[in-house]
Amino acid sequence: MNIRELKIRDSYEITPKQFGDDRGVFLEAYRFDRLTDATGRAVNLAQVNTSVSKRGTVRGIHFADVPPSQAKYVMCQRGAVLDFVIDIRVGSPTFGQWDAVRLDDVERKAIFISEGLGHCFVALTDDATVTYLVNDVFRPEREHGINPLDPEIGLEFPAEAGELLLSPKDTEAPSLSEAAATGLLPTWDAARAYYDSLKGN
């Protein structure tokens, strides 16, 4: 597999090598050793989540308190989504910026999003099935959101998604500036310190 760091530091696109024949396709969807080599830190997975979304569904922007927050290894098993990583770490050189990777059942790419980063995706097909491998169990009291339509962030949703469908929780979430003003966001320094603590584990 090929792993490259995205524009947002501590997030990565993973492109597996696929081996196809007349029976179908085989690939390594996840390799802990290759991810550790690329990121320089341990990723100990603790929970697997799956969501199924109709076309136009937007999930996010979601994040959790650091530490421990929740790192995510995200794949689309069926259909297609555009997956966004948003830098919400106060003090980061790319604070407020984002990058995106198309995840689908053709190229079968994945994205790894480190703790403290914001995550969002939009479904480009019906029955878009997304699987998330995460390194901590869900802790609702530590989970937060930012409105994915916040113009300050400016996520670009493709026409392929059609009409957007958001949950009330996501539409009622604060903007990036509001979250920063209330001290809700993680900081660059806290996130970097936490990543450093995972080296060699």
From TrEMBL:
Gene3D superfamilies reported in the protein's UniProt record: Jelly Rolls
GO molecular function: dTDP-4-dehydrorhamnose 3,5-epimerase activity
Coiled-coil parts of chain: none
Top-level division of the source organism's lineage: Bacteria
InterPro entries per the UniProt record, alphabetical: RmlC-like, RmlC-like_jellyroll, RmlC_Cupin_sf
One of the GO biological process terms: dTDP-rhamnose biosynthetic process
Active-site residues, Swiss-Prot/TrEMBL: 62 (proton acceptor), 132 (proton donor)
GO annotations of cellular component type: cytosol
Site (Participates in a stacking interaction with the thymidine ring of dTDP-4-oxo-6-deoxyglucose): 138
Family listed: Belongs to the dTDP-4-dehydrorhamnose 3,5-epimerase family.
Cited PANTHER family: DTDP-6-DEOXY-D-GLUCOSE-3,5 EPIMERASE, THYMIDINE DIPHOSPHO-4-KETO-RHAMNOSE 3,5-EPIMERASE
Protein name according to UniProt: dTDP-4-keto-6-deoxy-D-glucose epimerase
Organism: Mycetocola tolaasinivorans
